[in-house]
Amino acid sequence: MEDKIAIKMHTFALGDSICAIPTINKLSKIYDRPITVFNDWSHLLVGHPNVSECKNYGDSTDGYLVHETFHKHLQGNIEKKHNAIDIRQFHAWDLGISLTGDEMDCDLYCEEEYTIESDNYIIIHPSKTWDSRTWDGDKWQNLTNQIINLGLDVVIVGNDIGQKEWNSDGGGFIPKDVFDIQGGVNLINKTTIPELRWLMNKAFCVITMDSGILHVAGTTDCNIIQLGSSLNHKLRAPWRNGSQDYKYQYIGGSCTVACGSNLKYGLKEHNDIHGIPPLTDCREGFDEFLCHSSVNDVIDNIIKIDGFNNIDKNIMLGKNKVTITYTGSPRVYVDGDEYGEYFIEFIDDSTKKVIHSDTIKNNMWTACSREWFTNWVIKIDGKIIDKFNLEGKKVRMIQDSKAMGDTIAWTPYAVEFANKHKCKVILTTHHNEWFENIPIYKDIDFVGFNYNEEVYAKYHIGWYKDFKKNNWDNPKRNPTPVNIIPLQQAATDILGLEFNELNYGIDIGDNKRPIKNKYVVFGPQATAGCKEWNINKWEELSIKFIEKGYKVVICSLHSYNIPNTIECNGSLEDTATHLKHADIFIGLGSGLSWLNWALGKHTYMINGFAKEGHEFTSKLTKITNDLCIKCWNDPVHVFDPGDWNWCPVYKGTKLQHICQQSITVDQVLKSIKWKE
pTM of this prediction? Predict the structure, then answer.
């Protein structure tokens, strides 16, 4: 009768035993049958497709062809250093085999439901082992407090009954221990491993040092944070889905030597295991283990985990509930009947500066006035309560301006914002229909101004005056005075984006050329006197074009009565059709020029009142002069939209609007690149 195939693991450690699973899988594949496992943790392999029987370590192996791991530690003249070798390969090499990356996953099938009164929790494992693998109890307590402040529950796991760990000098075993941590759900000694796996699969995250719990977590789909220790984490980090990066973070400290895995320190033998000794002091000579991570680093990385902002968190201060909103300026509410005074800080995480602080009591609120995009960190009494994160969230954007140019200029940045932050942008403009059917906007939801569904954050985009001071320096709503920057940058500054000129086009349908002959379009209409050009010059210009054989089309909302021209005073679609097929377009610093640009056409712009770069810069010939101060962009002067004749330098004189009116017909004609 053929012997049964078995593997016997000479280890009593939970993590080491789990890490034998890839070797079990490969051995089963070699023999083309399930195998028997001898180990004190073998019961965890019940139901495993590659395991036929689960036996205790001390059971008889008669009748079995036994392969042993953690027993033979010399292969030729090569000494195996336990802590300097990937723990999964340590098993395999004892059998004379090696594992590839896609064979390293550890898979368990045992899971038993364990109910707790929490839907949103983080599991921590505050274990005490050798000093270099032990995070201070004070750190665990601080971490627990901060996680609770984030609005999540803490579940504390571990087992200090019947388990042992190597003592510091390698002379035997010492009982394992777990720090007494207050404030969480204490499950120390209360769960089996199958129950723990069930809890892990429901948890938002598991936080542990290199431990058996780390390897249990590695058999689940949960997020894992491994705290820094003296060991090289790559030798212990779980493999899942063929990778050590899947939902896994290692958070170490300032020292990266990994002295516990560094061969220059691997001189001591533990009984029959040739390994690097458990460390009670730093081999690099530091007074403490600088490989250990800080609590703040752990908190920062918890917040960065995908899905953190999608958790329904319940932030409490004692019995009082904290609510934080970002729909406009950030606001903190503290509701409840338990008396308390709370110091609130609104911090710009990019600059680390406190933008606003305030002390409030229960049943009060406070807010920071800044409304533009900021990577907010909210602290209460010095503790981080919330970090702003848009990923997966709904973000409302509202363009307050009705102007054609403003709408065309600002809308593309909704796409850039959504892509950068991986969020859902819900956009309101006065002209949604111009963009809704353009493919690049397919993930943007265009809605009306009456949209009132709940969103995570909200931004208004526009030019906002400080009416009290009568200037454009309004740091509450615009990070930079808007009159000194390009028009498109007003949107990128508010949205926290790097400014790059963007043109994603406009939807006008697929209309045919309206005029068979070559023709030019004039756009003589503007929203202010300082932008317009003398009507007599438009008429003179039309004569020059007609002499060159062009039809002249005047696009405006009202009639200019220029002889021998074609007037287009109809719909936007009609106007856009004429622009799209025109051979030449000449306009002003106005919406029609922006429309022409959005259609991908070259624009000849008569503009003496604004600096270079204020409008778009691509496909533009700007016809200008330097006779005045470019008042539109002058930080001293503030445009008054109620004053048609606004001219801050020469109003009421013969030189009023000289910046525009000094531009000649010949200047315009000489600037044009003619197509004969």
Answer: 0.67
